[in-house]
């Protein structure tokens, strides 16, 4: 899916590039463990994330990753109903680091945890709408945006099993939503739509965005595990080309 590709590329490139492949092969992750004792790794990952974020919009445009199709929405009220169809969302390729990427190492459990805070400056969306009040009502289109949507992605790597996993996705700020409806709408219809945007549409879109990030992050885990598996098997590593990642970091 397009939604998966957007953040899969972003996060898997970071994970793969931030690891010293020679250290992994020669020392069984020993050098990586030692590097977690200092701030150097955090600075390195911050730099890689920023570089990838800067280059990612061009990559997304080339691969035609956006817009992403949204599910239809239908809400019923006592005397009215609202149906949104043909929805599309874009802006997820314009992602930015929101503070330091934190890396922690639990010595007892032998687990590395990475927390990646990100934000989207402007997520744009469109829908066709149909409002029905007492069996009649207008149809039209709407355009909107969510500004400064912030969330964090928490991943971990178990150095006992060399397996990565997604721990959680957490929204810290669902942003500010703005919506414009075309057509000549009465005050009564506008009031219904405005209430719908605040109480229903914004939370629904937040859920869509979180789902996109979760799907992508789950695929990131699979990508990271594949990289690790190829690193730990010399017969496979000979055929593994890390240059495929480097093109996005130039």
UniProtKB/TrEMBL annotation:
Signal peptide: 1-16
Keyword Signal: yes
Signal keyword on record: yes
Alphabetized Pfam families for the sequence: Grp7_allergen (PF16984)
Annotated keywords: Signal
InterPro entries on file: Mite_allergen_7_sf (IPR038602), Mite_allergen_group-7 (IPR020234)
Protein name per its UniProtKB record: Uncharacterized protein
């Amino acid at each position: 899916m397009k939604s998966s590709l957007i953040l899969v590329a972003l996060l898997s490139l970071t994970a793969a590039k931030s690891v010293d492949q020679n250290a992994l092969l020669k020392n069984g992750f020993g050098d990586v463990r030692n590097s977690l004792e200092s701030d150097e790794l955090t600075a390195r990952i911050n730099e890689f994330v920023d570089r990838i974020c800067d280059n990612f919009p061009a990559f997304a445009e080339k691969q035609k990753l956006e817009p992403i199709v949204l599910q239809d929405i239908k809400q019923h009220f006592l005397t009215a109903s609202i149906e949104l169809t043909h929805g599309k969302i874009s802006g997820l390729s314009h992602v930015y680091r929101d503070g330091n990427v934190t890396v922690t190492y639990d010595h007892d459990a032998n687990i590395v945890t990475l927390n990646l805070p990100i934000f989207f400056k402007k997520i744009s969306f469109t829908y066709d709408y149909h409002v029905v009040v007492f069996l009649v009502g207008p149809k039209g289109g709407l355009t909107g945006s969510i500004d400064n949507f912030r969330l964090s992605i928490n991943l971990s790597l178990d150095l006992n099993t060399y397996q990565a996993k997604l721990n959680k996705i957490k929204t810290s700020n669902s942003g500010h939503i703005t919506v414009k409806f075309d057509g000549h709408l009465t005050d009564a219809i506008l009031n219904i739509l405005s209430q719908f945007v605040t109480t229903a549409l914004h939370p629904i879109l937040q859920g869509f965005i979180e789902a996109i990030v979760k799907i992508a992050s789950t695929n990131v885990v699979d990508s990271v595990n594949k990289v690790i598996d190829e690193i730990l098997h010399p017969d496979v590593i000979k055929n593994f080309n890390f240059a495929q990642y480097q093109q996005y970091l130039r």
